[in-house]
Write a structure and sequence with these properties.
Blueprint (H helix, E strand, L loop, with lengths): L1 H8 L2 H19 L8 H20 L21 H15 L3 H12 L4 H8 L3 H21 L14
Helix pairs in contact: 1-2, 1-3, 2-3, 3-6, 4-7, 5-7, 6-7
């Protein structure tokens, strides 16, 4: 949840506050619920709504994700090759529109379905699909220009 909050506001302290506030809201709301079909999506929706409420109260725009950095959580030693790849991936992600970045994060990092993302962001399913398609295309082009290729293809032929 903290990563999504940070992606929404690009401020560590605010992200922590939003997560805490969302958890309190979830706890109070859960008392009235018998069963929640998808608890993670339910919590993310509360977090997103909490951030929207905060933005409206402060009359701020949603911050760009310029300072957000993806890291390899599976490899804590962060070998040199992994460091270069994640540096290039972060650069590529920063080239995306914020709406595309959030959809790519939810789909590819958190593995949400298109339908779940549409519900979380309160946008039509087709919008999610097109944003994710454009985001992936852009990422492929940028990473291909840096010499990355999908396994089994030549450099520059990311598919």
């Amino acid at each position: 949840m903290l990563q999504l909050a940070y992606m929404r506001c690009a401020n560590k302290e605010l992200a922590e506050d939003l997560v805490q506030e969302a958890c309190i809201k979830a706890y109070k709301s859960y008392i009235d619920k018998e069963e929640i079909a998808n608890p993670k999506a339910w919590l993310f929706r509360i977090l997103i709504n909490t951030h929207i409420d905060h933005v409206r109260k402060k009359q701020l725009e949603i911050a760009d994700l310029d300072n957000f950095e993806f890291v390899d959580k599976r490899n804590p030693s962060q070998d040199t090759e992994s460091n270069y790849f994640f540096k290039d991936l972060n650069y590529a992600l920063k080239q995306l529109e914020p709406e595309q970045r959030v959809v790519a994060y939810l789909a590819d990092v958190n593995e949400y379905s298109y339908k779940e993302i549409a519900e979380l962001l309160e946008v039509p399913l087709g919008t999610v699909m097109s944003r994710l398609h454009r985001a992936r295309q852009t990422l492929r082009k940028i990473l291909a220009s840096k010499g990355y290729a999908k396994e089994g293809t030549r450099t520059g032929e990311l598919k």
